[in-house]
Amino acid sequence: MADKNAVPPVAAIDRDIGREFKEPCCIHTKKIYDACRDKDCIEDIRVYLTRSSQCVVDRAINVKCRTAELIWCYIDVEPVSFNRGFYTVDVKYFYRVTADAFTGMGRPTEVEGLAVFDKRAILFGSEGNAKIFSSRTSLGSADEQFMRQANMPIAVVEVVDPICLNVKLAERCDGRGACDTVFEAPESICNCFNDELVVDGAEKRMYCTLGQFSMIRLERDSQLLISCKDFCMPEKECIGSSDDTPCDLFKRIRFPVDEFFPPDGNHTKFSDPHKDCCK
Fold first, then answer.
1. Residue 197 falls inside a structural domain
2. Cα 269 to chain center, whole Å?
3. Measured CA distances, 46 to 28, 53, 181 (Å)
4. Which of 28, 111, 165, 173 has the fewest beta carbons under 10 Å from its own?
């Protein structure tokens, strides 16, 4: 007698799956050619404080890190001349660093500034010599065909806000290098702060150490043949406004148990630290 719980052979599974799909179809999508992940500990990078924050730091005796926020990152892709198909991905991260400055026995004063970090990765992006044209409409201009674009891979960087590990103060000239450094931040980055940034002439400087997790990948437009079952039709109905009272709506909200009880640490999944591929 055959066992009902026995696993069917692979061929039988393939035949059953094949019945679910109507026909293969060709789609245009972005294919990932190479990717890597990294965990960077960025030590002692300069924080360019705002004018008001610099005045506080010049009188401070100690600082304590509060938060670090990733504002924006600039990405540049260039081919590697000595290794065809490979590309360098240069990423410049712009951070808003917030700290507490202690000037005496009173309460600390919040200070903020800009920190910058440069990172490079070499990834495989294949080769492509085709000239790409598109007839998409450009918003705000005449309905004209887009100009020809170079067939270069597209770099995508996925990051989370960094962990602020440490901040410290240093005198203007303390052996770290030149007393005044030349730095120009993009205007769009400077506009993220309520005051101008002090890039030179500071009596005291603030340095921070950040922990950054990131993933970088190279993508190309590709045509792929996939098994197609059917079109995707939404099954959920659109819900508009109702005549329910606020209390009726509140009764249907699930009790937020997770807000009162922290998650069980025994169920946390840890990744393999030996699988990092950014070297």
1. yes
2. 21
3. 44, 14, 10
4. 28
